[in-house]
Write a structure and sequence with these properties.
2 copies of one chain form a homodimer.
Chain A lengths: L20 H10 L4 E5 L2 E4 H17 L7 E5 L4 H12 L3 E4 L6 H11 L3 E5 L3 H9 L6 E5 L13 E2 H6 L16 E6 L9 E5 H14 L7 E3 L7 H4 L1 H7 L3 E3 L6 H11 L3 E4 L1 H8 L14 E5 L6 H9 L2 E9 L4 E5 L11 H8 L4 E2 L3 E7 L15 E7 L5 E2 L3 H7 L5 E9 L5 E6 L3 E4 L2 E4 H9 L4 E11 L3 E10 L9 H9 L10 E4 L12 H11 L4
Helix pairs in contact in A: 1-2, 1-9, 2-3, 4-5, 7-9, 11-12, 12-13
Chain lengths: 546, 546
């Protein structure tokens, strides 16, 4: 043992398990009277928010919630949802946010799987919760949330949120977890097929990801954050914790509505927000009457999910949004990558810049490494921007694993890498570019076609609002691209599938062009992701082409 | 055991010990061709810097340096000094930077105490090193640094830095420490009295402090950092790691010279720098011929050490520097506090704003709590901005402890708080304000006098360049304030001690006014701190007043 290990142990003065709860504690002192929460006419400052979260933690503890107990919630981005992000961890419980657009069967599955001890339900989702609970034998304690901004639905449960809160002590002496590896939350993957998997986050990762997010999103001091990203999605990419650490103002939002978003941005001088590319599309295509003036410094919008089409990024920048392109998965606490701007790109033309920016980018500070491997051999592929393989990474903001699923966990972490399941190329400059979800690759006549590439092209058409491309079985080619296209409201009526296909053939290799085009609105998940599995079902009904 | 602890263990994919070495690894990939180091005409990009640090680590490992082995260095802020901040930790060794202004006896003490295995010596400090080594029986491996910008001094040692480097492997497969609590560096306290104590930092703390520094100094992406803060001082407040994490450019600087500082700021568009209040004073009082135009966005200057006088802050802002006021100790990896600006201060007048900004402020994100306690009872004093006690804190960026000094370590961490030894008041808004180092308080007629308060006043006099106040024994009052004052070059010759005392009496309570004033230059440490103990010795020679 070296001299540096003698009499130099951890003690309460120089070591504390990392937990994002300390950010709220600090902000309650440093920014006591700063507005922490805005929701309709409601305003709460940081001192009040902290006080309420302690009281909530105390109330939960009095009901027996402790380490490893799941507290589930079905709610949109309300003040209560934000409070649960602190109150539950401070009680040592595990927060399980449930996607509000799921069906009762899926919700029941999750509640049973998570062994939920308590379930908070916003009144708008009373029916969903009731139907899910009807499918269960063991019943959690149900607590209804009576949101002032929600006139619909019944406040169900043994008690309501505010009454429950009063049973707790606002000066509750909460404790950090004994071990920072302790679980803080449970997020089910959106699960396009099969049963959803329960992704477990820990306090250390949530703390580090919040620090990294402050840096990645350049939150600065006292940002104003509009809650367009659902908190049930990767805990809102950990922004309940990051924005609180930065002493920012949380502007709550029950649903993604472009008119309301523009109004709140204008009214509260929103500085930062997030959102799927679909949210950007919505803002971009909103009628002029709906738009409001943006704050003088513009609004930073972090966009996750699929790569936003270059035309959408350019359009957003034109109307005053600065677009940051992120990439991540539920398993990586949200963003693991961002497309960091390089000063040498300043000299490129627009098209070249868009090409750079459309890439998913480089790992954030808390991800130690990434690479693209050949899925069959596990070997690292050349960093040539062309060879497709699976994107893998490792670091401190990757989940503990999948709850009660050691096999899936082991597979996800095989070879000491976390396997994203996404197909990507690695560019020589260390920027990763996702080519497709593994299952989204289209193999036509032995050639791989990236459905993203075809979608990118379709988005460039002036009348196309949204596009999604999936494989359609084909007798001759094996598979061919089938495009689902939603046109803009003012689109030319004479635009037919044949014309659009011809337009594509003028622009990319013919084998990559859609053979089938179906017009109409696209099915989406609650987080705005296009549900390709629904489209695949529709294609299945079409039968094989050729 | 809860379900959240089953089959959800750490593995190489989802857990890595925190170490700042990973920041360099990442920047070498993400910012491969960005300029990492500027030194005279020398430029190195991040790919090269990483390559050299790996080679250095490999060379050290080949010489047997491993976990717990001390590698000492006597050098100013050169590229080699920066490389040692990565190369040594990557070899698992402990970096011990030595203050270049110490006497050979002190250096010998440190090398022996640290059991230095290797000693790097910049040629300018060859004599100092040789004299220190002459006092030692066990000799470390000595490696001379031949800096192109230093014409003086001999390159001593068994080999020189560049030759030593070539013995290593530039693709060395360095390892993170097995445990993030492992020591990364050893910093001796400046030790105004008695033998210096060896403060031990760990990898986890260095990593977290770097993240916190990026946020606190608002480094953003690709800052240009001028190296005015000696890296031998709290590892340059951890900025070798923070600036590297942010992909910034390190502009090296052998010594604090106002003409050179202005020139480098202008030439390289420096965005950030640090410095003791004395550095600011130097820049502020530099003749117009020496000044250069600052970059359009100004320069952020983080100032540590004593509270900068309000007039100095205001003066700096006038010429284009944004002053951030920090507070910290060697034991807290440099800054533990910063004086965060509150939006409600925007409405205050200049004097009120200066009063707010002169305070040391609030704990940074990685310090979990602070308070002021009564040193005799250990009780928390009222947060009234008036009751003086000892500032204490706890968190994750506080040293492991003092090397080979369990008693001092235990005392420092008594009652689960780290004891700063600084006397402070706590304001109702959670901002701490240092009133004095414990030994700097002057007790006159039973009244406590803050020497800082008297200094603040003296700095407001138009002819005073610098001032320091210490206690002088007094037969009647016990102690009285004795002021050492350095006048500006253009000061009025007719300004006498009597006139200056009279000027003070017009402005503060008479018992607080200096009874003695001595004109002349002030003795300083290498980091620009005024050496009050030297002044106290001079006062001792004066004998008691009264």
């Amino acid at each position: 043992m070296s001299v540096y290990d003698q009499d130099l142990d951890k003690c309460a003065a120089n070591y504390a398990p990392l937990t994002p709860s300390t950010f709220l504690q600090r902000s309650a002192r440093v920014y006591a009277h700063r507005t922490a929460v805005v929701h309709g006419d409601l305003r709460r400052d940081y001192a009040t928010l902290y006080c309420r979260c302690r009281q909530l933690a105390s109330a939960l503890a009095l009901k027996g919630v402790g380490e490893g107990d799941t507290v589930s919630v079905i709610a949109p981005n309300t003040p209560e949802m934000l409070e649960l992000h602190f109150g539950v961890p401070m009680s040592q419980g595990v927060l399980n946010t449930i996607n509000t657009r799921l069906d009762p069967g899926a919700v029941a599955f999750m509640l049973k799987f998570a062994e939920a001890k308590v379930l908070f339900v916003d009144r708008a989702f009373a029916d969903l919760a009731r139907q899910a609970l009807a499918k269960m034998t063991v019943q959690p304690l149900v607590i209804g949330i009576d949101d002032v901004l929600e006139p619909e639905g019944e406040v169900i449960g043994q008690t309501d949120y505010e009454a429950f809160m009063t049973t707790g002590d606002p000066e509750y002496d909460w404790k950090a977890p004994a071990d920072e590896w302790q679980a803080i939350s449970l997020n089910f993957t959106s699960g396009t097929t099969g049963n959803p998997k329960g992704v477990v986050y820990h306090h250390r990762g949530a703390y580090l990801n919040a620090m990294s997010a402050i840096i990645a999103f350049n939150l600065g001091s006292s940002p104003t954050y509009l809650w367009t990203v659902p908190m049930f999605h990767c805990n809102g990419w950990c922004c309940p914790w990051a924005v609180t650490a930065a002493g920012g103002t949380h502007v709550c939002l029950r649903k993604v509505d472009p008119a309301l978003i523009y109004q709140l941005i204008h009214e509260h001088s929103v500085s930062h927000m997030g959102g799927a590319p679909t949210v950007m599309n919505m803002l971009l295509n909103a009628p002029a009457s709906m738009r409001r003036e943006l704050p003088p410094n513009g609004v930073s919008i972090s966009t996750g999910g699929a790569a936003p089409p270059g035309a959408v990024i350019a359009g957003m920048q034109r109307i005053g949004f600065q677009v940051a392109h992120l990439y991540g998965l539920t398993e990586t606490y949200g963003p693991s990558h961002w497309c960091e701007w390089q000063t040498e790109w300043d000299g490129l033309n627009d098209a070249q810049q868009m090409q750079k920016m459309a890439r998913q980018g480089v790992p954030c500070l808390t991800i130690n490494d990434h690479c693209v491997i050949d899925p069959s051999t596990g070997e690292v592929v050349p960093e040539d921007g062309r060879t497709i393989g699976e994107l893998v990474m490792r670091g401190n903001t990757i989940m503990k694993g999948y709850l009660k699923n050691p096999q899936a966990t082991q597979e996800a972490f095989e070879g000491s890498w976390f396997h994203t399941g996404d197909l990507a190329v690695m560019h020589p400059d260390y920027y990763a570019e996702i080519k497709d979800r593994s299952k989204d690759i289209i193999i036509s006549g032995g050639e791989n076609i990236s459905s993203l590439e075809v979608e990118e092209l379709l988005y460039q058409h002036p009348h196309v609002m949204e596009a999604a491309v999936v494989a359609r079985p084909d007798e001759m080619w094996g598979e061919t691209p089938c495009a689902f296209v939603c046109l803009k409201e003012d689109a030319d009526d004479s635009l037919t599938d044949a014309i659009l296909i011809e337009w594509c053939r003028d622009r990319i290799a013919h084998f990559k062009c859609p053979k089938t085009i179906i017009f109409g609105p696209l099915p989406k998940t609650s987080t705005g992701k296009i549900q390709k599995y629904v489209l695949r079902e529709r294609v299945g009904q079409l039968g094989a082409g050729g």
